[in-house]
Amino acid sequence: MVKKLKEQAYSFINLDEAMQDEVYAQENKYYKKWGVSWVYRWMTNSIEIKRLMNNEPDILEIYKEYQKIQKQN
Question: What's the pTM?
Answer without folding.
Answer: 0.42
